[in-house]
Amino acid sequence: MGAAVAAGTLARLRGVSKVYRRGTAEVAALAGVDLDLGEGESVAVMGPSGSGKSTLLAILGCLDRPTSGEYELDGHVVSDLEDDRLSGIRNRTIGFVFQSFHLIPQLTVAENVEAPLLYGGGAPSSWRPRALECLRRVALLHRADHRPSELSGGEAQRAAIARALVAAPRILLADEPTGNLDTATGEEIAALLAELHREGRTVVLVTHNEALARRAQRMIRLRDGRIESAPEG
Amino acid sequence: MDGRVLLRLGVRSLLLHKLRSTLSILGVVFGVAAVVAMSSVGEGARREAVAQIGALGIDTITVRTRPSEDVQRPSGLRLRDSAAVAAVVPGVLGVAPVREVPLAASAAGRRAEVVAVGTTPAYRLAARLPVASGRFVTDLDVEDRKRVAVLGASVAASLFPFGDARGRSIQIGGDWYDVVGVLQPRGSPRGRPGPIRTRDVNHAVFVPLPALDRGGPGRPDGVDEIVMRVEEGREVAATAEVVKSLVTRTSGSGAFEVVVPREILRQKERTQRIFNVVTGAIAGISLLVGGIGIMNIMLASVAERTREVGVRRAIGATRGDIAAHFLVESSLLTSTGGVLGAVLGIAGSVLIQHLAGWPTALSPLMLLASLVTAAAVGVGFGLYPAWHAARLEPMEALRNE
Predict the structure, then answer these.
(1) Residues B278 and B394 reside in one and the same domain
(2) Are residues B15 and B74 in the same domain?
(3) How far is B297 from chain A (nearest CA, A)?
C-alpha cells in the first residue's frame, strides 16, 4: 500500500475530521479519516445515514474544509488555499453529481451544462459546442433546449452528469446519484458512470446501493465518521 | 466572467418573475419621473428668466410709471425726470424716455398689431438695438416731430413681405408715417406674462417721442418709462438707487418703480436654488424608498435561490462571481426603472407644458445624471443582498430546501 501512495495518488486525506456546531452541541461528522485516492480509481463509499459519507464527499470536492487534519489534492494542500482557489479547483478538477440533480430551473439544459464554463474563462463561443458534445455523450442532445422541469429523473441526472463533465475534470464525485431514481433508470446512470470511469476518470460514488457499490474497484465503509474497512475491490 | 453573459443571465432571472420585477422598480420609476419632470419645470423657468433678462439687457435700468388710481391728479414720470437723470446720474448711457401704446398698423393692404414706441435716439444706445437697414430715430426727427417709423423685424416681415420697407408709408393708429429703417430680428422670450415685462422689439414700431402724443390732458410731457444703460464697470444696483432717489424728488411722487434686471436675475437664482434643493430632497427620498424596495426584493430573491447559489459555487463560482450575479440583477432593475422613469418624466414635462402652460426644458445632463443615479442605487442597495449571497457556505446553500 505504501507504494500506491507514490506516483498515482490524486488525493490524500490524513486524520481529517469535521465537526459541526449545532447550537451548543458539537457533532463530529468525520473523526480522523485517512484515505488515498489513486488517479483513475473508482471508489464506492457506503455507510448508514449520518455516517459522514456526504461530508467526506464535500471535503474531497473542496465544498467544505476539514476542521482538522490534512487534505492534499493534486499536490495542493487544500486547507491552505484561499476560497477563490478552491472555486477554481471545483471548476476545473472536480465534477459533482448530486442526488437531487441540482439543475438551475430558469436555464435550459444546454445552458445548465455550459454553466461551469462561465466561471472557467475560455472563449464564450466555445461553450455551446462543448456543452452539446457532453450532452451527446450522455445521449441527451435532443433535450438541449428543454427546461429541467420538462425532463424525467433519469434525463435530469444525465444532464447533471453532462454538466459535471463539461470542464473535463479529473475527478467525478457522485452523491447518491441513483437515490432519486427507479431501479432501471438507476442502472442506466450507474452504467454511464462506470463507462466514464473506464475512460480514465477518477470516480468516487456515495451510495446506499450495495450492488452499485460492488461495481467500484474499491469500497470503503464509513461508520460514525470513521472508515470501517477499505477492502480492495 | 464575460460581461455579456452575466447580463443575459441577469435578464433571464428577472424575466422569470416579470410581475415582481416590475413592481419592485416602480419606486425608482416614479422617483426618477418626478425628478425629471420637476427639474424640467425648473430648467424651463430658468431659461425663460435668462431669455427675458437677455432681452431686457443685463446692465439696463428701467424706471416705469405705475398705473395711477387717481384720474384727477395723474402722477407718474415726465420728460423732465428723464432729463434730470441724464444730467445728474453719473455713469449712465442713453437715457431714453419712452411712451408706448398698442396700435393697429397697416400698409399696402396688410394689417398687423404692433406696439408703437415713441422715444428718442438714446433708446438705441440703451437697448443696444441693431439696425438692419436705414436708420433709427434721430434728434432731428424728435425736434421736428417728424412722422417717421423704424420697424421691428417681425413687423417689417408681415407688412412688407416682398422687398424693402424703407421709403414706404405705413399707417399707425390713423396717422401716416414714412418708414426710415428696419431693425435686426432679436431673440425674444415667449409672449407669456412673466415677472418681468419685456418689450418684444420684433413686434414694435419706433417713432419719435413727440409723434406719439399720449401725454393726456394736463400731462403733455408724461412718459411711460425711462430706459438707460449703466456704463461698464459701474455698479448697477448702486446706480439704480441713485436713479430712484433722484426721480422720487423730481417727480414728486412715488408712482413709479425701478426695474433692475440684474437684481431680478439674482432673485430668480435664489428662488431657483431653493427649488433645486427641494427637487434634490424629493429625488433623494424617492430613490431611498426605491432603493429599499430593490434591496427587499433582492433579499427575497437570494433567499429563494440559495440552492442555486450552492450549485453555482459547486461548479466553480467564486464569492465574487455570486455577488456579481446579484449586483447585475439589482442594477439592471434600477437602470430599467431609471429609463422608464426618464421616459415618463419627459412625457410629464410635455404634459405640464401643454396643460399648465408652464415652460419646461429638459437638460440632457439632468437626464444622464438621473440614469446614472438610478443605476448607482441598484449597485448601492444591491450590495447587501449580494454580499449576503456571496457569504453563503456552499454546502449549507446546497442543503437548503
Answers:
(1) yes
(2) no
(3) 18
A102/B321 Cβ within 8 A: no
Residue B271 sits in the same domain as residue B314: yes
Give the whole-angstrom CA distance, residue A85 versus residue B395: 17
Boundary residue ending a domain (B221, B254, B287): B254
Same domain assignment for residues B334 and B201: no
* Closest Cβ–Cβ partner in B5, B16, B308 for A118: B5
Which chain A positions have a beta carbon within 8 Å of B317's beta carbon? 87, 118-119
- In a domain, residue B59? The reply is no
Asked if B249 and B393 sit in the same domain, the reply is no
Give the pLDDT means over successive 10-residue stretches in chain B (401 positions).
83 88 91 90 84 74 76 69 88 87 86 89 86 90 90 89 86 89 74 55 88 62 86 84 88 81 81 87 88 93 94 95 95 94 94 89 89 93 96 90 69
Are A63 and B313 a contacting pair at CB < 8 A? Answer: yes
- The closest alpha carbon to B81, from B252, B230, B209, belongs to B252
Residue B108: domain span = 67-254
- Residue B24 domain-assigned? yes
Identify all chain A residues contacting B318, using CB atoms and an 8 Å cutoff: 83-84, 87-88, 119
B144/A contact by beta carbon, under 8 A: no
| CA-CA-CA-CA torsion sign (B342, B344, B350, B353) | negative
Instruction: Using the structure block, give the residue that is written with the C-alpha cell 453529481.
Output: A97
The residues in A 128-167 lying below 8 A from B, measured between CB atoms, are 163, 167
- Point out the domain boundary residue: B227, B254, B281: B254
Candidates B2, B315, B396: best to mutate against A (most CBs of A within 10 A) is: B315
**Does B179 lie in the same domain as B283?**
no
| pLDDT, tens only, A177-230 | 998 899 899 999 999 999 999 999 999 999 988 888 888 999 999 999 999 865
Residues B284 and B241 in one domain: no
Q: Do the Cβ atoms of B394 and A118 come within 8 Å?
A: no
Residues from chain A that touch B393, judged by Cβ atoms under 8 A, are 64
Count of domains for chain B: 2
Return residues 37-76 of A near B (CB < 8 Å): 58, 61, 63-64
* Yes or no, beta carbons of A115 and B313 under 8 Å apart: no
* Residue B362 included in any domain: yes
Q: Is residue B177 part of a domain?
A: yes
pTM for this one?
Answer: 0.75
ipTM: 0.92
Say whether both B242 and B289 belong to one domain.
no
